[in-house]
Write a structure and sequence with these properties.
four-stranded antiparallel beta sheet; about 290 residues; alpha/beta; ATP-binding; single chain; binds adenosine-5'-triphosphate; P-loop_NTPase; ATP binding
Length: about 290
């Protein structure tokens, strides 16, 4: 089990993360927060690229820094911007990385063959990556992270720049990979993890806001989300009085979706909360510009 114990991270005077406590077992954990919330900071500590200012990270009770090589042997990591050589084919690239990891060519070849099959890149195994789509490159990234058949797979924003179809494919791939390992995936896109994560971790104000199933997180807004149709003229006032989390033009009117925790109006329709609603509600101050 991987444990984050009372971890804080300072960059000079700036506190990026404060008193983080987390436990990871097998399955998919989605680390969900807007950009700048500290996801990469947490991930870099989990892969020992940076050290916590306070607290410790433990794997089966031992500090991961002390485990050193033993920890890296069970770790697969896909950084936010992973460096690949576009003049290499996936096969050449993976052979090169295998060599760096001390795996000889004879052992590496069947592993690479199997991995490329797993990430559906067998038919382009010998093609230069120059012309690959973002999704194909990310799948090469996953393949390189899986070279040592890691027990822990950590992916930092792996779907950035992917189109919805590639995202869906990526989710399928991760579900298949999660059977016997721990996968931690960071993202600011709710749909990346909503349906596949066993646990969702949300960070707010440098602390853990939620660590729970998507359903339980949704339940925090149960009974507080409504939809109603208003005129375009009413929209401005509505925006001022309620916390809007969605608006859609519909037959000349606006269908608004909003959070309200007091008495409801008879024209409003109560709706079931989605994880996206919680995300937009909790991060409404951070997202003003982005949404
Ligand atoms: N080396 C550093 N020195 C100073 N501040 C940093 C450093 N690295 C990150 N930060 C700050 O810490 C905060 C968290 O950054 P982090 O990269 O962990 O966020 P994130 O949630 O991963 O966002 P993104 O998806 O944009 O990477 C940000 O305000 C960032 O500016």
């Amino acid at each position: 089990m991987l444990v984050v114990k009372d971890v804080s991270k300072q960059y000079g005077d700036f506190t990026a993360l404060k008193q983080i406590n987390l436990e990871f077992d097998k399955g998919i954990y989605g680390l969900l927060a807007p950009n700048g919330a500290g996801k990469t900071t947490l991930i870099k500590m989990l892969v020992t690229l940076i050290s916590p200012s306070k607290g410790e990270l433990l794997y089966n009770g031992t500090n991961i820094v002390d485990l050193d090589e033993d920890y890296r042997d069970i770790l697969g990591y896909l950084p936010q911007n992973f460096g690949f050589y576009k003049h290499y084919s996936p096969k050449q690239y993976l052979l090169y990385l295998a060599a760096l990891k001390g795996i000889d060519k004879k052992t590496a070849l069947p592993i690479i063959h199997e991995l490329l099959e797993k990430v559906a890149l067998s038919d382009v195994a010998n093609k230069k990556m120059r012309k690959f789509s973002g999704g194909m490159i990310q799948r090469v990234g996953i393949a390189q992270a899986l070279l040592n058949d890691p027990k822990i797979l950590i992916l930092d924003e792996p779907t950035a720049g992917l189109d919805p179809k590639e995202r869906a494919r990526f989710r399928q791939l991760l579900t298949g990979l999660s059977r016997d390992r721990l996968i931690i995936i960071s993202t600011h896109i709710v749909s990346d993890i909503e349906s596949i994560a066993n646990q969702v971790i949300m960070i707010k104000n440098h602390e853990i806001l939620f660590k729970d199933t998507a359903q339980s997180i949704c339940d925090t807004l149960d009974g507080f989300i409504y939809e109603t149709s208003i005129t375009n003229d009413e929209l401005e006032t509505f925006r001022k009085n309620y916390i809007l989390i969605g608006e859609k033009q519909e037959r000349g009117n606006v269908l608004v979706r909003f959070v309200h925790k007091r008495e409801m109006d008879k024209d409003w329709v109560p709706v079931l909360p989605h994880l996206e609603d919680v995300f937009l509600y909790e991060y409404r101050d951070n997202l003003m510009v982005e949404v």
